[in-house]
Hints:
single chain, alpha+beta, 1 helix, 3 strands
Amino acid sequence: MAGWFELSKSSDGQFRFVLKAGNAETILISELYKAKSSARTGLRQCKTIVRRIAGSSAKKPRMASTTSSVAAPPQLEFMLN
């Protein structure tokens, strides 16, 4: 299942976004932003970073060492709106 971002308003009127995993576990909580537009800008920047990470892990999978049994990390899958 794909992960997603949520944008919310805190009790003091500031905004933050969170990144949720496919199982609804919170992976990341942003700093607080005074303006909703600033929070959206931060969210867009975070999406860009996640896309880069997902793209680079898909293109360059880690190889298991011959001296250890380290497996490749799971591939990231996110719905980015």
